[in-house]
Backbone:
């Protein structure tokens, strides 16, 4: 059906970096839940590739990790890393910042790939948000912990900013590399500000007048 | 792979109506859980397009909302509507009846689209049921509330009746419009009767003799 | 996109057997939760076809049960069987052993189908594991019970062994039938040993030194 309309070369090293970071968060959740290594590897894979898998299915592209021989071993490598490492070394602020970087990178890459496959800007932005956030949502739902969507952290918004800036720049045919870098930095900056100042969006505030 | 075997023109306005109704139920759940606006918009989208997305992936069609520029903004519009409106205005019987209409319309449209893509009648009926119900199931699972499948409401059955009548009429080559209207009305009537008389199917009743 | 690179004829009777076994486990969970028949049928279908559906979507193959008119009625037949039968007859050791056979058969078939569609060995093994385990995971998540991944049973490992042996044999171009039988027996043996001796993998054991 759909074919790539531009010869878009995704920055694959960035893609693998994002996958590795999310695989790490999946393995860490399995460690916190005291699972065995096989379950930990499964969580690493599910979290690392979940968002990109949904994106590829929806835009009609071949699922990236089924066709790329490096992605799955990378996820398993992160599981091994967590398995052999005492947990607290990873559970510090560094992980939160790495996760912010992964979220921003994945949101940009997801939007860019969707645009490259001929998807219109608004759905392409949504594909970027999905790529950045779905892996973590699947991880939390399968583990039975409250999903990141339900926590009051500013998490989807940075992904939306990164994907939106990417779609904006590519719609105006700015240079791809510059667009991607600026978009990712923009999303990362918002997530960083949210972490630093504990920013939150206001919640639905209409009183329940009937009960 | 699969291509539409009949030049089926789906009644797109009905499709958008169903999407809007389900997006509304997603936004309302987010309001009840006191989420922020971004999460509310995410829930509206997920609930509005979830069923149709699974259907399109399974029958090999391009995912409708990724290719249609109007669907996502419509879902966001429903989120805005819920955000600016006191909650109780929507949480009355009107919503239940609108949901019943959406369920019936989506079940018919899902079955009709699957048949149009050359799917056999039984799987096509299942595609109709899926289109009508999957959005709500995904919404409930991600939110961590008991899914509609687990409640004892008569909900899947009306969808099955609507999709079944649609497949029956189209298999006998009755006029498409008449078939769709009768099938949707049939499903809606059963859901309405279930709501009015609080109808339920009997549950599994064999005694647990061993424990 | 992808097309089968070898004229692989999957042993369809084995495939239907695995589907039937998993459909049975889905219906039984619905019975334990005292659901009505429609929900039971939905669970039977979801559990029976869930793993194969994800596999087919990811490797780019037509979804098997949407194109095969026998799979869905088979799942419903299993739901009928559970509905008319007192529960304890099925909840004995026989079911556990049948489930072990289904897991091994599905893991082999999933890996073989992925290899037949040109997927590299490591992702193909993962497709086998997914085919064997995803139906049960979806069943548990939708039902709101702890998923099989979270229990401490040796369950993913036998699937990995079966899929791994299958990929190994097919990579060395051994006879397909012999490879499949040996791989399935190997996976079944490990699952059987785990059931008989209550084998478990060690869990993540690093002390939480920081709290």
Residues:
């Amino acid at each position: 059906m759909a074919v790539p309309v531009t010869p878009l070369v995704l920055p694959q090293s960035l893609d693998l970096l994002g996958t590795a970071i999310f695989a790490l968060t999946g393995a860490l959740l399995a460690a916190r839940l005291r699972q065995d290594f096989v379950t930990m590897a499964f969580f690493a894979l599910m979290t690392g590739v979940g968002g990109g898998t949904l994106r590829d299915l929806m835009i009609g592209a071949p699922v990236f990790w089924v066709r790329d021989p490096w992605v799955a071993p990378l996820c398993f490598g992160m599981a091994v890393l967590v398995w052999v490492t005492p947990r607290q070394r990873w559970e510090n602020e560094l992980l939160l910042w790495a996760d912010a970087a992964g979220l921003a990178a994945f949101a940009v890459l997801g939007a860019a790939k969707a645009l490259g496959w001929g998807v219109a800007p608004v759905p392409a932005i949504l594909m970027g948000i999905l790529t950045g956030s779905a892996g973590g949502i699947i991880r939390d739902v399968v583990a039975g912990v409250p999903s990141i969507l339900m926590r009051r952290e500013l998490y989807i918004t940075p992904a939306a900013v990164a994907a939106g800036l990417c779609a904006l720049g590519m719609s105006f045919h700015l240079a791809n590399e510059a667009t991607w870098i600026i978009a990712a930095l923009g999303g990362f900056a918002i997530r960083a500000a949210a972490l630093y100042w504990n920013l939150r969006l206001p919640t639905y505030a209409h009183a329940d007048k009937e009960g």
